[in-house]
Design a protein that fits this description.
By secondary structure, this protein is an alpha/beta fold. 18% of the residues lie in helices and 33% in strands. The protein has eight helices and 30 strands. The strands form seven sheets. An eight-stranded parallel barrel has the order 21-22-23-24-25-26-27-28, surrounded by four helices. A six-stranded antiparallel β-sheet has the order 3-2-4-9-6-7, with no helix packed on it. A four-stranded antiparallel β-sheet has the order 1-10-5-8, with no helix packed on it. The protein is globular and about 75 Å long. The structure holds alpha-D-galactopyranuronic acid (ADA). The site of alpha-D-galactopyranuronic acid has 9 residues, from loops.
Protein backbone atom coordinates (compact mmCIF):
# COMPACT_ATOMS: atom_id res chain seq x y z
CA UNK A 1 0.00 0.00 0.00
CA UNK A 2 1.68 3.19 -1.11
CA UNK A 3 -0.99 5.79 -0.35
CA UNK A 4 -4.44 5.92 1.21
CA UNK A 5 -6.13 7.42 -1.86
CA UNK A 6 -6.10 6.44 -5.49
CA UNK A 7 -3.20 8.18 -7.21
CA UNK A 8 -3.94 7.26 -10.82
CA UNK A 9 -6.98 6.26 -12.79
CA UNK A 10 -5.49 6.25 -16.28
CA UNK A 11 -1.82 5.55 -15.63
CA UNK A 12 -1.00 1.87 -15.49
CA UNK A 13 0.72 1.26 -12.16
CA UNK A 14 1.62 -2.03 -10.54
CA UNK A 15 3.36 -2.80 -7.28
CA UNK A 16 6.46 -4.93 -7.59
CA UNK A 17 6.10 -5.91 -3.93
CA UNK A 18 6.22 -9.61 -3.21
CA UNK A 19 8.86 -12.29 -2.89
CA UNK A 20 12.21 -11.34 -4.44
CA UNK A 21 15.59 -13.13 -4.53
CA UNK A 22 18.12 -11.87 -2.00
CA UNK A 23 21.76 -12.35 -1.13
CA UNK A 24 24.05 -10.59 1.30
CA UNK A 25 27.47 -9.68 0.03
CA UNK A 26 29.71 -9.31 3.11
CA UNK A 27 32.89 -9.45 1.02
CA UNK A 28 31.60 -6.92 -1.52
CA UNK A 29 32.31 -9.14 -4.49
CA UNK A 30 28.93 -8.83 -6.21
CA UNK A 31 30.06 -5.99 -8.47
CA UNK A 32 33.23 -7.78 -9.61
CA UNK A 33 31.27 -10.93 -10.23
CA UNK A 34 28.51 -8.94 -11.96
CA UNK A 35 25.62 -10.23 -9.87
CA UNK A 36 23.48 -7.64 -11.62
CA UNK A 37 23.84 -9.74 -14.77
CA UNK A 38 24.01 -13.19 -13.20
CA UNK A 39 22.19 -13.24 -9.92
CA UNK A 40 23.71 -15.96 -7.66
CA UNK A 41 21.74 -19.20 -7.71
CA UNK A 42 22.32 -19.78 -4.00
CA UNK A 43 20.27 -16.68 -3.12
CA UNK A 44 17.34 -16.85 -0.73
CA UNK A 45 13.78 -15.54 -0.85
CA UNK A 46 12.83 -12.29 0.86
CA UNK A 47 9.69 -10.21 1.06
CA UNK A 48 9.74 -6.71 -0.41
CA UNK A 49 9.11 -4.45 1.40
CA UNK A 50 10.70 -5.60 4.64
CA UNK A 51 13.90 -5.29 6.66
CA UNK A 52 16.40 -8.10 6.16
CA UNK A 53 17.10 -8.11 9.90
CA UNK A 54 14.02 -10.23 10.42
CA UNK A 55 15.49 -13.16 8.48
CA UNK A 56 17.27 -15.97 10.31
CA UNK A 57 20.93 -15.12 11.03
CA UNK A 58 20.64 -11.59 9.64
CA UNK A 59 19.51 -9.81 12.80
CA UNK A 60 22.53 -7.54 12.98
CA UNK A 61 23.73 -7.73 9.39
CA UNK A 62 24.93 -4.36 8.18
CA UNK A 63 26.54 -3.88 4.82
CA UNK A 64 26.05 -4.85 1.19
CA UNK A 65 23.18 -6.93 -0.16
CA UNK A 66 21.50 -7.65 -3.49
CA UNK A 67 17.86 -8.07 -4.47
CA UNK A 68 16.39 -9.35 -7.73
CA UNK A 69 12.98 -9.73 -9.29
CA UNK A 70 11.38 -9.89 -12.71
CA UNK A 71 8.38 -8.15 -14.20
CA UNK A 72 6.66 -7.89 -17.56
CA UNK A 73 5.68 -4.74 -19.46
CA UNK A 74 3.48 -4.02 -22.42
CA UNK A 75 4.58 -0.39 -22.98
CA UNK A 76 7.93 0.98 -24.21
CA UNK A 77 8.35 3.64 -21.52
CA UNK A 78 8.45 2.86 -17.84
CA UNK A 79 9.04 4.71 -14.61
CA UNK A 80 10.41 2.72 -11.68
CA UNK A 81 9.67 4.25 -8.32
CA UNK A 82 11.35 3.10 -5.12
CA UNK A 83 9.66 4.44 -2.00
CA UNK A 84 12.43 3.63 0.48
CA UNK A 85 15.74 1.75 0.34
CA UNK A 86 18.07 2.12 3.31
CA UNK A 87 21.30 3.98 2.73
CA UNK A 88 22.83 3.67 -0.71
CA UNK A 89 20.91 2.01 -3.54
CA UNK A 90 22.08 1.16 -7.05
CA UNK A 91 19.60 -0.03 -9.63
CA UNK A 92 20.20 -2.33 -12.61
CA UNK A 93 17.64 -3.16 -15.28
CA UNK A 94 18.29 -6.13 -17.56
CA UNK A 95 21.94 -6.09 -16.52
CA UNK A 96 22.48 -2.36 -17.13
CA UNK A 97 23.10 0.23 -14.43
CA UNK A 98 20.32 2.82 -14.44
CA UNK A 99 21.13 4.99 -11.43
CA UNK A 100 21.69 5.33 -7.71
CA UNK A 101 20.28 7.09 -4.68
CA UNK A 102 21.50 8.06 -1.24
CA UNK A 103 19.25 8.30 1.82
CA UNK A 104 17.00 5.69 3.31
CA UNK A 105 13.70 7.39 3.96
CA UNK A 106 12.60 9.20 0.82
CA UNK A 107 11.72 7.74 -2.54
CA UNK A 108 13.41 8.02 -5.92
CA UNK A 109 12.48 7.15 -9.47
CA UNK A 110 13.97 6.42 -12.85
CA UNK A 111 12.26 7.01 -16.18
CA UNK A 112 13.46 4.49 -18.76
CA UNK A 113 12.44 5.16 -22.32
CA UNK A 114 12.25 2.74 -25.17
CA UNK A 115 12.46 -0.56 -23.35
CA UNK A 116 11.33 -3.68 -25.18
CA UNK A 117 7.90 -4.78 -24.07
CA UNK A 118 8.21 -8.17 -22.37
CA UNK A 119 10.02 -9.62 -19.39
CA UNK A 120 12.64 -7.65 -17.47
CA UNK A 121 15.03 -8.31 -14.62
CA UNK A 122 15.42 -5.74 -11.90
CA UNK A 123 18.39 -5.92 -9.52
CA UNK A 124 18.89 -3.61 -6.56
CA UNK A 125 22.16 -3.27 -4.69
CA UNK A 126 21.75 -1.94 -1.14
CA UNK A 127 24.38 -0.68 1.26
CA UNK A 128 23.15 0.27 4.73
CA UNK A 129 26.58 0.86 6.25
CA UNK A 130 26.78 3.84 8.58
CA UNK A 131 30.00 5.49 9.70
CA UNK A 132 31.03 8.31 12.03
CA UNK A 133 31.91 10.93 9.41
CA UNK A 134 30.03 10.87 6.12
CA UNK A 135 26.66 9.22 6.55
CA UNK A 136 23.24 10.54 7.55
CA UNK A 137 22.57 9.26 10.11
CA UNK A 138 25.92 8.52 11.74
CA UNK A 139 26.52 5.02 13.10
CA UNK A 140 25.93 6.09 16.69
CA UNK A 141 22.18 6.65 16.80
CA UNK A 142 19.55 5.63 19.31
CA UNK A 143 17.59 3.44 16.93
CA UNK A 144 18.27 0.21 15.12
CA UNK A 145 20.15 0.08 11.80
CA UNK A 146 17.57 -1.86 9.85
CA UNK A 147 18.47 -2.61 6.23
CA UNK A 148 16.75 -3.36 2.98
CA UNK A 149 14.04 -2.30 0.57
CA UNK A 150 11.82 -1.03 3.35
CA UNK A 151 9.01 0.47 1.31
CA UNK A 152 7.11 -0.46 -1.85
CA UNK A 153 8.47 -0.53 -5.39
CA UNK A 154 6.14 0.69 -8.14
CA UNK A 155 6.19 0.13 -11.86
CA UNK A 156 4.51 2.77 -14.01
CA UNK A 157 3.93 2.05 -17.68
CA UNK A 158 3.66 5.26 -19.64
CA UNK A 159 2.08 6.17 -22.95
CA UNK A 160 3.17 8.99 -25.25
CA UNK A 161 3.35 11.70 -22.59
CA UNK A 162 3.18 11.90 -18.83
CA UNK A 163 2.67 14.30 -15.98
CA UNK A 164 6.18 14.26 -14.68
CA UNK A 165 5.87 16.65 -11.81
CA UNK A 166 3.51 19.13 -10.17
CA UNK A 167 3.20 21.45 -7.22
CA UNK A 168 -0.01 22.89 -5.84
CA UNK A 169 0.29 26.01 -3.76
CA UNK A 170 -2.45 28.27 -2.49
CA UNK A 171 -3.13 31.52 -0.71
CA UNK A 172 -6.11 31.91 1.60
CA UNK A 173 -8.09 35.15 1.71
CA UNK A 174 -8.44 37.13 4.93
CA UNK A 175 -11.65 35.42 5.96
CA UNK A 176 -10.29 31.95 5.18
CA UNK A 177 -13.16 30.96 2.93
CA UNK A 178 -11.45 31.30 -0.45
CA UNK A 179 -8.25 29.80 -1.79
CA UNK A 180 -6.34 31.16 -4.78
CA UNK A 181 -4.43 28.27 -6.33
CA UNK A 182 -1.20 28.38 -8.28
CA UNK A 183 -0.40 25.13 -10.05
CA UNK A 184 2.98 24.21 -11.47
CA UNK A 185 2.91 21.23 -13.82
CA UNK A 186 5.70 19.60 -15.81
CA UNK A 187 4.69 17.44 -18.75
CA UNK A 188 7.03 15.29 -20.77
CA UNK A 189 6.69 13.61 -24.12
CA UNK A 190 8.29 10.23 -24.59
CA UNK A 191 9.39 10.60 -28.19
CA UNK A 192 10.79 13.24 -30.49
CA UNK A 193 7.52 14.19 -32.17
CA UNK A 194 5.18 16.91 -30.94
CA UNK A 195 1.99 15.81 -29.24
CA UNK A 196 -1.16 17.90 -29.08
CA UNK A 197 -2.93 17.19 -25.86
CA UNK A 198 -5.09 18.84 -23.24
CA UNK A 199 -4.43 19.19 -19.54
CA UNK A 200 -7.61 18.91 -17.50
CA UNK A 201 -7.71 19.83 -13.86
CA UNK A 202 -10.40 18.46 -11.58
CA UNK A 203 -11.10 19.25 -7.97
CA UNK A 204 -13.09 16.51 -6.30
CA UNK A 205 -14.18 15.23 -9.71
CA UNK A 206 -15.34 18.63 -10.94
CA UNK A 207 -13.54 19.92 -14.02
CA UNK A 208 -12.27 23.38 -13.20
CA UNK A 209 -9.74 24.13 -15.91
CA UNK A 210 -8.66 22.92 -19.33
CA UNK A 211 -5.38 23.95 -20.90
CA UNK A 212 -4.51 22.97 -24.49
CA UNK A 213 -0.86 21.89 -24.66
CA UNK A 214 1.68 20.96 -27.28
CA UNK A 215 4.14 18.58 -25.72
CA UNK A 216 7.58 18.19 -27.12
CA UNK A 217 10.31 17.18 -24.67
CA UNK A 218 9.64 18.79 -21.31
CA UNK A 219 6.94 21.47 -20.93
CA UNK A 220 6.60 23.54 -17.76
CA UNK A 221 3.26 25.20 -17.07
CA UNK A 222 2.20 27.65 -14.40
CA UNK A 223 -1.53 28.02 -13.97
CA UNK A 224 -2.78 30.95 -11.89
CA UNK A 225 -6.13 32.46 -11.15
CA UNK A 226 -7.99 29.42 -9.97
CA UNK A 227 -10.04 30.69 -7.07
CA UNK A 228 -12.04 28.25 -5.00
CA UNK A 229 -14.87 29.73 -3.00
CA UNK A 230 -16.56 28.41 0.13
CA UNK A 231 -13.70 26.11 0.99
CA UNK A 232 -13.76 23.95 4.07
CA UNK A 233 -10.57 24.41 6.06
CA UNK A 234 -8.40 21.58 7.36
CA UNK A 235 -7.87 21.45 11.12
CA UNK A 236 -7.61 18.71 13.78
CA UNK A 237 -11.36 18.73 14.48
CA UNK A 238 -12.41 18.81 10.82
CA UNK A 239 -9.62 17.48 8.63
CA UNK A 240 -11.29 18.35 5.31
CA UNK A 241 -9.38 17.11 2.29
CA UNK A 242 -9.66 17.80 -1.46
CA UNK A 243 -8.54 15.62 -4.36
CA UNK A 244 -6.90 17.43 -7.24
CA UNK A 245 -6.49 15.49 -10.46
CA UNK A 246 -4.28 16.44 -13.39
CA UNK A 247 -5.29 14.61 -16.53
CA UNK A 248 -3.93 14.22 -20.04
CA UNK A 249 -5.42 12.13 -22.76
CA UNK A 250 -3.53 9.02 -21.62
CA UNK A 251 -2.10 9.86 -18.22
CA UNK A 252 -3.14 11.30 -14.90
CA UNK A 253 -2.13 11.86 -11.30
CA UNK A 254 -4.18 12.68 -8.24
CA UNK A 255 -2.95 14.63 -5.23
CA UNK A 256 -4.77 15.27 -1.99
CA UNK A 257 -4.52 18.57 -0.16
CA UNK A 258 -6.12 20.45 2.70
CA UNK A 259 -6.45 24.21 3.14
CA UNK A 260 -4.95 25.69 6.25
CA UNK A 261 -2.52 28.35 7.38
CA UNK A 262 0.14 27.90 10.00
CA UNK A 263 2.19 30.73 11.48
CA UNK A 264 3.86 32.01 14.61
CA UNK A 265 2.80 35.34 16.07
CA UNK A 266 3.52 36.93 19.45
CA UNK A 267 5.00 33.75 20.85
CA UNK A 268 2.06 31.56 19.84
CA UNK A 269 1.43 29.02 17.09
CA UNK A 270 -1.63 29.98 15.09
CA UNK A 271 -3.50 27.47 12.93
CA UNK A 272 -6.00 29.30 10.74
CA UNK A 273 -5.45 32.31 12.96
CA UNK A 274 -6.39 30.45 16.14
CA UNK A 275 -3.92 29.65 18.86
CA UNK A 276 -3.11 25.97 19.09
CA UNK A 277 -1.10 24.05 21.70
CA UNK A 278 0.63 20.93 20.54
CA UNK A 279 0.00 17.84 22.65
CA UNK A 280 2.36 15.35 21.15
CA UNK A 281 4.55 12.30 21.28
CA UNK A 282 7.74 11.40 19.47
CA UNK A 283 7.16 8.32 17.34
CA UNK A 284 9.76 6.09 15.71
CA UNK A 285 8.46 3.98 12.86
CA UNK A 286 9.57 0.77 14.53
CA UNK A 287 8.24 -2.55 15.73
CA UNK A 288 10.31 -5.60 16.75
CA UNK A 289 8.73 -7.79 14.08
CA UNK A 290 8.67 -5.26 11.23
CA UNK A 291 11.36 -2.66 11.84
CA UNK A 292 10.86 0.33 9.55
CA UNK A 293 8.60 -1.69 7.23
CA UNK A 294 5.48 -1.47 9.32
CA UNK A 295 2.23 -2.72 7.79
CA UNK A 296 -0.71 -0.37 7.43
CA UNK A 297 -2.69 -2.18 10.11
CA UNK A 298 -0.01 -1.41 12.67
CA UNK A 299 0.24 2.21 11.61
CA UNK A 300 -3.49 2.57 11.95
CA UNK A 301 -3.25 0.97 15.37
CA UNK A 302 -0.56 3.47 16.39
CA UNK A 303 -2.78 6.28 15.20
CA UNK A 304 -5.73 4.97 17.22
CA UNK A 305 -3.60 4.71 20.37
CA UNK A 306 -2.03 8.13 19.91
CA UNK A 307 -5.46 9.71 19.45
CA UNK A 308 -6.76 7.84 22.47
CA UNK A 309 -3.94 9.44 24.45
CA UNK A 310 -5.44 12.83 23.64
CA UNK A 311 -2.64 13.92 21.29
CA UNK A 312 -3.09 16.34 18.43
CA UNK A 313 0.56 16.20 17.32
CA UNK A 314 3.32 13.75 16.43
CA UNK A 315 6.99 14.36 15.84
CA UNK A 316 8.25 11.84 13.31
CA UNK A 317 11.50 11.28 15.10
CA UNK A 318 13.94 11.08 13.50
CA UNK A 319 13.43 10.56 9.73
CA UNK A 320 10.79 10.96 7.02
CA UNK A 321 7.98 8.57 7.88
CA UNK A 322 6.17 6.41 5.42
CA UNK A 323 3.79 8.34 3.14
CA UNK A 324 0.93 6.12 4.28
CA UNK A 325 1.39 7.29 7.85
CA UNK A 326 1.34 10.91 6.70
CA UNK A 327 -1.88 10.19 4.81
CA UNK A 328 -3.30 8.88 8.07
CA UNK A 329 -2.25 12.08 9.83
CA UNK A 330 -4.01 14.11 7.12
CA UNK A 331 -7.18 12.07 7.56
CA UNK A 332 -7.10 12.05 11.34
CA UNK A 333 -6.23 15.71 11.85
CA UNK A 334 -2.86 15.10 13.51
CA UNK A 335 -0.29 17.91 13.24
CA UNK A 336 3.03 16.50 12.12
CA UNK A 337 6.67 17.57 12.60
CA UNK A 338 8.87 15.93 10.00
CA UNK A 339 12.67 15.85 9.99
CA UNK A 340 15.71 14.25 8.38
CA UNK A 341 17.93 11.81 10.33
CA UNK A 342 20.65 14.36 11.10
CA UNK A 343 20.99 13.17 14.70
CA UNK A 344 23.65 13.93 17.30
CA UNK A 345 26.40 15.35 15.07
CA UNK A 346 29.42 16.44 17.10
CA UNK A 347 31.54 19.47 16.32
CA UNK A 348 34.17 17.57 14.31
CA UNK A 349 31.66 16.33 11.71
CA UNK A 350 29.57 19.46 11.28
CA UNK A 351 31.96 21.19 8.90
CA UNK A 352 32.04 18.17 6.58
CA UNK A 353 30.80 19.29 3.16
CA UNK A 354 29.43 15.80 2.45
CA UNK A 355 27.04 16.17 5.39
CA UNK A 356 25.90 19.60 4.21
CA UNK A 357 25.27 18.32 0.68
CA UNK A 358 23.56 15.14 1.78
CA UNK A 359 21.51 17.06 4.35
CA UNK A 360 20.35 19.56 1.75
CA UNK A 361 19.44 16.79 -0.65
CA UNK A 362 17.46 14.98 2.06
CA UNK A 363 15.57 18.16 2.94
CA UNK A 364 14.82 18.79 -0.72
CA UNK A 365 13.54 15.26 -1.23
CA UNK A 366 11.48 15.25 1.96
CA UNK A 367 9.83 18.55 1.16
CA UNK A 368 9.18 17.59 -2.44
CA UNK A 369 7.64 14.27 -1.42
CA UNK A 370 5.51 15.64 1.40
CA UNK A 371 4.76 19.21 0.41
CA UNK A 372 1.03 18.56 -0.07
CA UNK A 373 0.26 17.01 3.32
CA UNK A 374 -1.79 19.53 5.33
CA UNK A 375 -0.83 17.66 8.51
CA UNK A 376 2.81 18.70 8.21
CA UNK A 377 3.22 22.03 9.94
CA UNK A 378 6.91 21.88 10.92
CA UNK A 379 10.10 20.96 9.09
CA UNK A 380 12.77 19.85 11.56
CA UNK A 381 16.29 20.74 10.44
CA UNK A 382 18.30 18.48 12.74
CA UNK A 383 18.30 16.91 16.18
CA UNK A 384 20.81 17.40 19.00
CA UNK A 385 23.75 18.48 16.89
CA UNK A 386 26.36 20.63 18.59
CA UNK A 387 24.58 23.94 18.10
CA UNK A 388 27.19 25.76 20.20
CA UNK A 389 29.71 25.87 17.37
CA UNK A 390 30.24 27.90 14.20
CA UNK A 391 29.93 24.91 11.86
CA UNK A 392 26.43 24.22 13.22
CA UNK A 393 25.59 27.88 12.71
CA UNK A 394 26.70 27.73 9.07
CA UNK A 395 24.91 24.44 8.43
CA UNK A 396 21.67 25.69 9.99
CA UNK A 397 21.86 28.93 8.02
CA UNK A 398 22.28 27.05 4.72
CA UNK A 399 19.42 24.70 5.54
CA UNK A 400 17.09 27.55 6.44
CA UNK A 401 17.90 29.56 3.31
CA UNK A 402 17.42 26.60 1.02
CA UNK A 403 14.25 25.31 2.71
CA UNK A 404 12.55 28.71 2.81
CA UNK A 405 13.23 29.04 -0.92
CA UNK A 406 11.29 25.84 -1.63
CA UNK A 407 8.62 26.07 1.06
CA UNK A 408 7.88 29.25 2.91
CA UNK A 409 4.50 28.06 4.16
CA UNK A 410 5.59 26.00 7.16
CA UNK A 411 7.39 26.58 10.43
CA UNK A 412 11.04 25.73 10.86
CA UNK A 413 12.72 24.45 13.98
CA UNK A 414 15.31 21.96 15.21
CA UNK A 415 15.63 20.11 18.49
CA UNK A 416 18.42 21.52 20.60
CA UNK A 417 20.13 19.82 23.51
CA UNK A 418 22.15 22.93 24.38
CA UNK A 419 19.40 25.52 24.81
CA UNK A 420 21.47 27.68 27.16
CA UNK A 421 24.50 27.89 24.86
CA UNK A 422 22.85 27.52 21.46
CA UNK A 423 23.98 30.04 18.82
CA UNK A 424 21.60 29.07 15.98
CA UNK A 425 18.16 29.82 17.44
CA UNK A 426 17.52 33.08 15.65
CA UNK A 427 17.33 31.30 12.27
CA UNK A 428 14.14 29.40 13.09
CA UNK A 429 10.54 30.08 14.15
CA UNK A 430 10.36 27.98 17.31
CA UNK A 431 12.85 27.12 20.07
CA UNK A 432 12.56 23.35 20.52
CA UNK A 433 14.25 21.85 23.54
CA UNK A 434 15.29 18.27 24.29
CA UNK A 435 15.94 17.99 28.00
CA UNK A 436 16.01 15.07 30.42
CA UNK A 437 16.35 16.75 33.83
CA UNK A 438 15.29 14.18 36.42
CA UNK A 439 16.33 11.29 34.25
CA UNK A 440 19.96 11.82 33.26
CA UNK A 441 21.78 13.41 36.20
CA UNK A 442 19.80 16.18 37.83
CA UNK A 443 16.74 15.99 40.12
CA UNK A 444 13.20 16.57 38.88
CA UNK A 445 12.77 19.72 40.93
CA UNK A 446 15.55 21.44 38.99
CA UNK A 447 13.21 21.93 36.02
CA UNK A 448 11.77 25.35 37.08
CA UNK A 449 15.23 26.84 37.47
CA UNK A 450 16.20 25.50 34.06
CA UNK A 451 13.12 27.04 32.40
CA UNK A 452 13.92 30.41 33.99
CA UNK A 453 17.44 30.23 32.57
CA UNK A 454 16.10 29.47 29.10
CA UNK A 455 13.77 32.48 29.23
CA UNK A 456 16.56 34.69 30.51
CA UNK A 457 18.82 33.63 27.66
CA UNK A 458 16.08 34.31 25.09
CA UNK A 459 15.45 37.73 26.67
CA UNK A 460 19.13 38.60 26.60
CA UNK A 461 19.36 37.70 22.93
CA UNK A 462 16.18 39.53 21.93
CA UNK A 463 14.41 36.23 21.20
CA UNK A 464 11.74 36.25 23.89
CA UNK A 465 9.05 36.52 21.19
CA UNK A 466 9.87 32.96 20.12
CA UNK A 467 7.52 30.19 21.24
CA UNK A 468 9.06 27.20 22.99
CA UNK A 469 8.33 23.55 22.33
CA UNK A 470 9.53 20.86 24.69
CA UNK A 471 10.50 18.53 21.88
CA UNK A 472 11.82 15.72 24.10
CA UNK A 473 11.57 14.85 27.79
CA UNK A 474 10.91 11.47 29.34
CA UNK A 475 12.09 8.61 31.51
CA UNK A 476 12.84 4.95 30.88
CA UNK A 477 10.47 2.33 32.29
CA UNK A 478 10.69 -1.41 31.90
CA UNK A 479 7.22 -2.65 31.03
CA UNK A 480 5.68 -4.51 33.96
CA UNK A 481 8.17 -3.27 36.55
CA UNK A 482 6.06 -1.44 39.10
CA UNK A 483 7.22 -1.25 42.74
CA UNK A 484 6.41 0.52 46.05
CA UNK A 485 9.73 2.36 45.99
CA UNK A 486 9.53 3.54 42.38
CA UNK A 487 13.20 4.02 41.46
CA UNK A 488 14.40 4.82 37.95
CA UNK A 489 13.47 2.22 35.31
CA UNK A 490 10.15 1.45 37.02
CA UNK A 491 6.80 2.35 35.54
CA UNK A 492 6.17 4.33 38.75
CA UNK A 493 9.10 6.65 38.17
CA UNK A 494 8.15 7.31 34.56
CA UNK A 495 4.62 8.08 35.64
CA UNK A 496 5.79 10.48 38.34
CA UNK A 497 8.21 12.12 35.90
CA UNK A 498 5.62 12.78 33.20
CA UNK A 499 2.98 13.91 35.66
CA UNK A 500 5.41 16.47 37.09
CA UNK A 501 6.78 17.76 33.77
CA UNK A 502 3.49 17.97 31.88
CA UNK A 503 1.84 19.94 34.70
CA UNK A 504 4.82 22.28 34.87
CA UNK A 505 4.90 22.89 31.10
CA UNK A 506 1.14 23.43 30.95
CA UNK A 507 1.44 26.39 33.30
CA UNK A 508 4.34 28.02 31.45
CA UNK A 509 2.89 30.49 28.90
CA UNK A 510 5.92 30.49 26.60
CA UNK A 511 5.66 26.71 26.08
CA UNK A 512 3.33 26.08 23.16
CA UNK A 513 3.81 22.36 22.75
CA UNK A 514 5.11 19.16 24.31
CA UNK A 515 6.35 16.03 22.58
CA UNK A 516 6.89 13.27 25.12
CA UNK A 517 9.86 11.04 24.51
CA UNK A 518 8.47 8.68 23.38
CA UNK A 519 5.41 6.89 22.03
CA UNK A 520 6.71 3.29 22.10
CA UNK A 521 9.82 1.43 23.19
CA UNK A 522 12.21 0.93 20.30
CA UNK A 523 15.28 -1.14 19.53
CA UNK A 524 18.49 0.78 19.83
CA UNK A 525 21.73 0.38 17.86
CA UNK A 526 24.64 -1.79 18.88
CA UNK A 527 26.61 1.43 19.40
CA UNK A 528 24.23 2.43 22.22
CA UNK A 529 22.88 -0.79 23.65
CA UNK A 530 25.18 -0.94 26.68
CA UNK A 531 23.40 2.04 28.21
CA UNK A 532 19.97 0.70 27.30
CA UNK A 533 18.46 -2.32 29.15
CA UNK A 534 17.23 -5.04 26.76
CA UNK A 535 18.97 -3.09 23.94
CA UNK A 536 15.83 -0.96 23.78
CA UNK A 537 15.18 2.69 24.39
CA UNK A 538 12.58 2.07 27.09
CA UNK A 539 11.05 5.54 27.39
CA UNK A 540 7.86 4.51 25.55
CA UNK A 541 4.43 5.20 26.97
CA UNK A 542 3.64 1.83 25.48
CA UNK A 543 6.14 -0.98 25.10
CA UNK A 544 7.36 -2.23 21.73
CA UNK A 545 4.24 -4.40 21.36
CA UNK A 546 2.06 -1.36 22.14
CA UNK A 547 1.03 -2.41 25.64
CA UNK A 548 0.37 0.61 27.85
CA UNK A 549 2.57 1.41 30.83
CA UNK A 550 1.27 3.24 33.94
CA UNK A 551 2.31 6.61 32.56
CA UNK A 552 0.03 6.11 29.57
CA UNK A 553 -3.05 6.62 31.73
CA UNK A 554 -1.63 9.68 33.46
CA UNK A 555 -0.65 11.33 30.18
CA UNK A 556 -4.03 10.42 28.72
CA UNK A 557 -5.79 12.19 31.57
CA UNK A 558 -3.59 15.29 31.40
CA UNK A 559 -3.63 15.62 27.61
CA UNK A 560 -7.39 15.11 27.47
CA UNK A 561 -7.93 17.80 30.10
CA UNK A 562 -5.93 20.37 28.13
CA UNK A 563 -7.96 22.26 25.59
C1 LIG B 1 17.86 12.31 22.62
C2 LIG B 1 17.53 11.80 21.23
C3 LIG B 1 16.53 10.68 21.23
C4 LIG B 1 16.80 9.70 22.36
C5 LIG B 1 16.81 10.41 23.70
C6 LIG B 1 17.09 9.52 24.89
O1 LIG B 1 17.12 13.34 23.01
O2 LIG B 1 17.08 12.83 20.40
O3 LIG B 1 16.59 10.05 19.98
O4 LIG B 1 18.03 9.09 22.17
O5 LIG B 1 17.83 11.38 23.66
O6 LIG B 1 16.33 8.60 25.13
O7 LIG B 1 18.09 9.75 25.58
Amino acid sequence: MVRLFQRHIKRKVSLLDGIWRFKTDPENKGKDEQWYKNFPSDSMEIVVPSCWNHEFDLYDYEGWAWYATTFTTTERNINLMFHGVTGQAEIFLDGDYIGSHYGGFTGFEFLIKDVNPGKHTLVVFVDNTLDDMNTIPLARVDWFHYGGIIRSVELMELKTAWIKDYKISYQLNASFNEAALTLYVTLEGMNEEEISDQLNIYIDDELIKTVPVTISGEVKLQINNIVLKNIKLWDPQRPNLYNIQFELHKDDVIERIGFREIKVENGKILLNNKEIKLKGVNRHEDHPDWGFAMPLKLMKRDMTIIKDLGCNAIRGSHYPNSEVFLDLCDQEGILFWEEIPLWGYPDKVLGNKVILDRGLQMHREMIKRDYHHPSIIIWGLHNEIDTRVQDAYDLTKSFVEKIRAIDNSRLLTYATMFPLEDICLSFVDIVSINQYIGWYGEELDEWPEFLEKVKEKLRNEGLSHMPIIMSEFGAGAIYGDSTFEGPKWTENYQEKYLDYTLKLFKDEPSIVGTYIWQYCDIRTSKEMCLSRPRSFNNKGLVNEYRKPKMAYWTVRKLYREME
